[in-house]
Write a structure and sequence with these properties.
heterodimer; A: 113 residues; mainly beta; six-stranded mixed sheet; globular; B: 115 residues; four-stranded antiparallel sheet; 11 strands
Chain lengths: 113, 115
């Protein structure tokens, strides 16, 4: 079956530091890959996505590249801000599975001044 | 963007009681909603797919008689945890599919603690 593995948190960074949150996946066929973010007290929101190999999703300074050869979709940001503090979820939607998503465990990011 | 309201955000109940969690789409009609559960340090796991006007489709291993899902209107789906036990303590999240595409919007989740 499909699965998503992401690094355990929490990740604590100083403002303006570089961020990487690792995500690897197992799936048959050609899944679509997503990063969702959950800010305190709010629902998960789609941050970015990529639907085929070598696609790069980007939004709000965050980027992730769909790497089929390494089955990875690592999230990166060059300079984090305090407002980026949240929980980040990597997810995939398998081929032919409509809108069913398979999620990772989530990684909590805490950015300090 | 579309708004999905989930209520309550947290609930504490005694073992053996039933708890109802509501998921509402506030500014759109959702024919399909999903219910997820997350145990500490584990992934969000899909429990069931809720379709308006029909029976929910449950994922393997999820007890349909324990987790009752009702999607009687286009803006409301409810999850009732019947005869709750401490092992049902978890974080429950709903999401709604926004027509006509496949965008998903999520509620803020419900933390259930069963004593």
């Amino acid at each position: 079956g499909n699965s998503v593995t992401q690094m355990e948190g929490p990740v604590t960074l100083s403002e303006e530091a570089f961020l990487t949150i690792n995500c690897t996946y197992t799936a048959t066929g050609y899944p679509s890959l997503f990063w969702y973010v959950q800010y305190p007290g709010e629902g998960l929101q789609l941050l970015l996505k990529a639907t085929k190999a070598d696609d790069k999703g980007s939004n709000k300074g965050f980027e992730a590249t769909y790497r089929k050869e390494t089955t990875s979709f690592h999230l990166e940001k060059g300079s984090v801000q305090v407002s980026d503090s949240a929980v980040y979820f990597c997810a995939l939607r398998g081929t032919g599975t409509a809108s069913k998503l398979t999620f990772g465990t989530g990684t909590r990011l805490q950015v300090t001044l | 963007g579309a708004v999905v309201s989930q209520h309550p955000s947290w609930v504490i109940c005694k073992s053996g009681t039933s708890v109802k969690i509501e998921c509402r789409s506030l500014d759109f009609q959702a024919t399909t909603m999903f219910w997820y559960r997350q145990f500490p340090k584990q992934s969000l796991m899909l429990m069931a797919t809720s379709n308006e006007g029909s029976k929910a489709t449950y994922e393997q291993g999820v007890e349909k008689d324990k987790f009752l899902i009702n999607h009687a209107s286009l803006t409301l789906s409810t999850l009732t945890v019947t005869s709750a036990h401490p092992e049902d303590s978890s974080f429950y999240i709903c999401s709604a599919l926004v027509p006509p595409g496949e965008k998903l919007f999520f509620g803020s989740g419900t933390q259930l603690s069963v004593l």
